[in-house]
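Homework-ish question, so no full write-ups if that breaks the rules, but can someone show me the predicted structure for this set?
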Amino acid sequence: MKKVYSRPKSLKRNHFHYCPGCGHSIIHRVMTELIDEMDLQDKAIGIPPPGCSVFAYHYFDVDMAESAHGRGAAVATGIKRAYPEAIVFTYQGDGDLAAIGTAETIHAANRGEKITAIFINNAVYGMTGGQMAPTTLSDQKTTTTPYGRDVKLEGYPIRMSEILALLKGAVYIERTAVNSPTNIRRTKKAIRKAFQSQIDNLGFSLVEILSPCPTNWRMNPLESWQWIDKEMTREFPLGVIKDITGEKNAD
Amino acid sequence: MTGNSAVGEAAIRAGCQGYFGYPITPQNELTEYMAAHLSRRRGCSFVQAESEIAAINMVYGASLAGVRAMTSSSSPGISLKQEGISYLAACELPAVIVNMSRGGPGLGSISAAQSDYFQATRGGGHGDYRCIVLAPSSVQELADLTHRAFDLADRYQIPVIILGDGMLGQMMEPVEFKHEAPEEPPVRSNALRGAKGRPSRIIKTFTSKPTELEELNWSLFRRYQLIKKEETTCETFLVEDAELIVVAFGIAARIAKGAIKNARTAGLRVGMLRPVTLWPFPAEAVREFAKRTKYFLVFEMNMGQMVEDVRLALEGKGEVFFYGRPGGVIPTPSEVLRVISRHYYQEGLR
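A: Not a homework solution, just the prediction itself:
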């Protein structure tokens, strides 16, 4: 019988510790498929964040190093500058990339660092138990916005990808989701494009992925998939936000 | 050459391939020196980071990738770097951090001070760890210790802090460099450079098992014991017949030396012990002196920080006096001489 589906070579043989319905395991799977397909296993260096996915190194069979909360883009900058042959990616949540690490992210993008940020947006702080994130939707209930996010007091959900797209050093930015087979395929295509722009040495690339957190959203997995479509994408529309990889190639 | 530039040149000659910094007075000449000289070298990188926090994390990244990397700052900026220094210590990564310290607390002043002694010698960030701390007292020594700092960092896989001050960084003195920059600086063998021909590597400390972290702490402290044994360094000056030993480090020791010379001319038997490594602190040397003399005068440009290490070392055996000027005030040798003379006569020495 012909084998049509198997574990990617760069995905370790460990059981995922993530909650049922969590998006991390899907994204890990998609990324490790790409690492295999693009032949990056011996070049890739990953920077997982503090948070649920701190244990990403239990699953990715590539070189990895932990980063302090929010500092992924700076750590990746140091690695890439010291060893430009590497393909360096950060794996960061919304609190990490869009709150505590805002400065590091914006300036790495602005310098056009040849790194790729995989930005998991689940609108909450996951591992700490579901507090308000910078991307929490208005009126969304979290443990620190128990009456719903009041934008007059707590600010608005921040669209980090759109902010980053303004910077000349950023060459590829796309927002995707992992709540349907179609969207998962699109996510894979977006990450492929982001990695390719790094391989081509073009500049900073980022894929924002709307990812379900059923546990902290107090939903079952199916409801969480539907919530992404019904609520999250209204604030965070899917699609390519910036792609100047073609222009950069022409330079 | 200024002290700041001397550190830059010595770092390049030690094979430093990555400098990551953020402007702050009084150490800007070092950042500028690296911008002018390191950035042009093949395989080397210079980044003016968006913050001190980003800079230390870039050092962490470059160190992960196996090259010699450094950052520099001054007191308030060093406070911001503590998060990164704790991670470097935890992940057993070499790095060199220069603190051309200034008066504090808060924004403080831009004048030379020694009030970061506790922060430097007690780890500085969160968790149980130590950094090797080197305290030069001349521009020549700044250059020499910069080279030694990179060697120590690699040998013990530990962050090394050079604790200078605004005066050392800014002052100009002749300096001789004893090494040529290596053509191909070596890459650390345990670096992250992609899992080519070897299993993938993970550099991390986070664990859900406290006993694993306890083991890391034990292994770090075993290494710290070794460093104490092998690397503790101090300089002595006119101590053979001294009845009063001045203990001072860095620029304060330089000032004290002038005072001691004048005290000698006046017939006072005074000597000096100058710790070159602040951590590990030369406690053994202090204890040795306690066998010969009872009187110690600790002089620091702060409210009394190293004096605690002197007292700990003496275990109550000597008489310890303290004289300090905080806030960026730089005492003169004659002021220190007056303090020496006062204690000398009060104790009925001579």
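Now go work out the reasoning yourself. Hint: Chain A touches chain B at residues 41-45, 50, 54, 57, 60-68, 71, 74-83, 85-87, 103-104, 106-107, 111 (CB under 8 Å).
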